[in-house]
Amino acid sequence: MISAPHVLAAAKSGQHPPTWHVVRADKGHFIREAIGSGFFLLLVLGFLVWFNLQDEFVVVLRILAFLEAISDQTWKIIDNVVLIFIACCIIYALYRAIRNLAALERHCVVIMPEGVVIDLAEKEPIVLDFAAIPPQGLQVIQDQNANANLRVIDAYSGQERQYELDQRFGKPGPLFEQILQRHQMFHQANQVPGNQPLYPGGVQA
Fold first, then answer.
1. What is the C-alpha to C-alpha distance for residues 16 and 23, in angstroms, rounded to an integer?
2. CA-based Rg of the chain, rounded to a whole angstrom?
3. Would you say residue 64 has pLDDT above 50?
4. For residue 11, which of 132, 85, 3, 179 has the smallest C-alpha distance?
């Protein structure tokens, strides 16, 4: 049984076994997110001010015929609501980037011989116990855009989960491949005669 608090405390203090591989978040990733969000926020707010100084300019296209009965003033109200909503979304993205920067030390991935702990500093840490994942229960799914998901199947319940990471730890594909390799090494090291991996408690795959 992997204890996430114990693993994370050891990893972040630097006092962990040499067999552990600790990957820390890239500060530049969150800085780029914050700068990008701030830039787009300034653009939207600037456009919002300019837009409200215009008398007849509207943004939303009146495509449907019955919408022609709506006055330009009503359209301007609709446009303002849309622009304010977009600004709020960007403000939230900026807030998340700043919050992640403030909690930079918490972000880490700990890859161990027996499993993985991922702390994203937002929710409960993700724990992947290799003993609870069958030999073929871990897959890396990549698309043409170099995005990657980690597909996990629980050995006992058969429940399937998918995990997706952004690039705070670098490209997720190679990181997931390293986790997959450690998972395969775990099962190779815990095989019994007949090539039947034996799990704790005598449960066989």
1. 13
2. 24
3. no
4. 3
The rounded Cα 1 to chain-centroid distance in angstroms is: 24
The reported pLDDT for the residue numbered 192 is 45
Q: Which two tokens stand for residue 149?
A: 């998901």
Strands (E), the chain: 21-24, 108-112, 115-119, 126-129, 138-142, 148-153, 160-164, 191-192, 196-197
Say yes or no to pLDDT of 180 above 80.
yes
- How far is residue 118's CA from residue 110's CA, in Å, rounded to a whole number? 6
Strands 196-197 vs 191-192: parallel, antiparallel or unpaired: antiparallel
pLDDT, residue 201, reads: 36
Distance of CA 192 to the CA centre of its chain: 37
For 9, 98, 150, the CA distances from 163, given in Å and listed in that order, are 23, 23, 5
Question: Tens of pLDDT along 34-62?
Answer: 999 999 999 999 999 988 887 766 555 55
List the alpha helices (DSSP H) in 53-166: 72-102
What pLDDT is recorded for position 50? 87
Residue 104 has a CB neighbour count (10 Å cut-off) of: 16
